[in-house]
Amino acid sequence: MKQKLYAFWKHDIPPYVLGGEVTEIKSNGRVCVKGFTGYSFLPLQILPLEEGRAKQKEIDLALKKYKNTTKKAEEELRSHTKQLSLKYTLTEIGHEHVNDFLKECSAKRKEILDISI
User: Fold this and answer.
1) Quick one: pLDDT band at residue 55, thresholds 50, 70, 90?
2) DSSP E strand stretches across 1-117
3) Rounded to whole angstroms, how far apart are CA atoms 96 and 110?
4) How far apart are CA 3 and CA 26, in angstroms?
5) Left (φ > 0), alpha (ψ -120 to 50) or beta: where does 94 sit?
6) Degrees (nearest 5) of the Cα angle 78, 89, 92?
7) Given this model, what pLDDT does residue 95 score?
8) Is residue 79 a contact partner of residue 72, using CB atoms and an 8 Å limit?
9) What is the pLDDT of residues 94-105, one digit of tens each?
10) 109 alpha carbon, distance to own chain's centre
């Protein structure tokens, strides 16, 4: 391979793609990538090396933003849940209000996730 290439392939967790420098393109269209010895991947995209590295930086930045947003949303949800748990103490109001507590937590979680996305 004369020109150095960078490939991206699907992944099952955020950022839902991985990328790396191509070391070999197999006859079946799969690529071998530096740092993933023994594995080959079906690429979503193959770019010239520098263009691929630039795209990887964009993906890394988006992932960092995603993680920060998710962390803030989780902190807000925990805070809200803590406040609700003080409001709905089982010893003071009884078991019949557990569903109210869970509904409020669910509603807040949905609200936070809708705002974050």
Assistant:
1) very high
2) 5-10, 17-25, 31-33, 43-48
3) 23
4) 15
5) left
6) 165
7) 62
8) no
9) 666 677 777 888
10) 17
